[in-house]
# Entry
Amino acid sequence: MLDIYLGSLFYLIGEFVIFLALIVLILSVIATFMILYSFKTGHFFAARLMLIGISTLENAIKSIFWIARADDAIVDDVGIRLGNYINKKKFARISRGERFIFMPQCVRSPECPAKLTPEGIRCIACGRCRVGEAKKTAEGLGYKFFIVPGSSFIKRIIKKYKPRAIIGVGCPMEIKQGLAMCHSYDIPAMGVPLSQAGCVATTLDWDVLYDTLSDKP
# Structure
């Protein structure tokens, strides 16, 4: 009798697992098509729901891209653009004097003479890279500008100064983590991804950064 009961129980569990897997697969396929549509057109449908889907089903969605031999970096790209799209209106309502920008240290020149301080690297605008120019522009608009070597610095600065809005520059993984962290602090954040990632002398689309600084669409 017990064997029959256990057999029925395991059968039901197996049925439920298969049903759940099918649901995940169907939702992942739908999300994949939505991501491709948004990537090609720049338009978003049900943005918040779509972002939740990407965050929840990221591994499954990237597996579909891998099977189709497509670049799964598209998933991260659309995820960041979705986050920016959702945060943009709230971000724009915050005065520039209450906004911070965090730049990764890898954007600096390898010959950068700036020194590390408790609040990040203090740029001296030596002209060896474009960070000094960006700092001057950002601060001219009212932003507080920081060059940071890691997320621990960002958390420390946020806790100390309590910014009301943030722009973060970094690789897709860093931006995703940063957007999640800012969400936990209820801070609207905009991400500007590096166009070439790495540990030294990375690059970004500076025009995108300046457009983000000046609230251009």
Notes: Helices lie at 2-41, 47-67, 73-92, 131-141, 151-161, 172-184, 206-213. The radius of gyration is 22 Å. The chain has seven helices and seven strands.
